[in-house]
Amino acid sequence: MATQIQVFTFNPFMENTYVVYDDSKECVIIDPGCYERSEQLALHNFITQNGLQVKHLLNTHCHIDHVLGNAYVMHQYGVPLEIHEIEKTQLKAVESYAPSYGFTQYQPSEASVWLQEEDVIRFGSTELRVMFTPGHAAGHVVFVCDAAGFVINGDVLFQGSIGRTDLPGGDFDTLIQSIQQKMFLLPDETVVYCGHGPSTTIGYEKRTNPFCALSR
Predict the structure, then answer these.
(1) Alpha-carbon distance values, 17 to 63, 137, 186 (Å)
(2) Burial category of 34 from C-beta neighbours within 10 Å (exposed 0-12, middle 13-18, buried 19 and up)
(3) Which of 25, 144, 148, 181 lies most in the core, judged by the most C-beta atoms within 10 Å?
């Protein structure tokens, strides 16, 4: 069985949470947005029913919609949180503004592992390569599986769009640079799994994305 991906869409922001696993039954959870108990149970039931062992908890970045389930996953599966160190301040800030978004029961989390460019996350027979892609968030990273031809890209690139840059840590020029000088160097057939909405491919976005297409 090749590396597989299960996506869950959680919370009012319709955020995509990813479980990546292979035939070793080891897995990683990326950007757990599960806030409601029903969402937490949906994630837990999938992991239990498939006999998966959680080896890593990863955040592409630390905006509220991507971290709502961090504390749950850390407690439930006994894994540390791994983020880029630049996102530490962003993660800390969530606790102060979560109630204003209606998340009055938000449980804060702290990271203890710092991801850097070209780190490799290993589980089972799968490797995810860390790529530093700031612009939507100052410490944004993506996770590239070169062998299986996909990238879990958070809020960098969307089908026909890009991540917003009007939030703290955002910068439009930096984001475009990350896309053109990092993301667009991946093979055209690479599947891009997004933080919101449907997946796409690098080649499709190169040809058609109105924000950053290299050719028309």
Answers:
(1) 13, 18, 22
(2) buried
(3) 144
- Given a contact cutoff of 8 angstroms between Cβ atoms, the answer to whether 19 and 9 are in contact is no
Tokens representing 31 are 């950007």
**In this structure, how many other beta carbons lie within 10 angstroms of the beta carbon of residue 22?**
17
Q: How many helices and strands, by DSSP H and E, does the chain display? A: 6, 14
What tokens does 26 get? 């080891």
- Verdict on whether the full-model pTM lies above 0.90: yes
Under DSSP, the state recorded for 39 is: H
CA nearest to 59, candidates 115, 120, 20, 5: 115
DSSP state of 187: -
How far apart (Å, rounded) are the C-alpha atoms in residues 216 and 212?
A: 10
Give residue 205's identity as a one-letter amino acid code. E
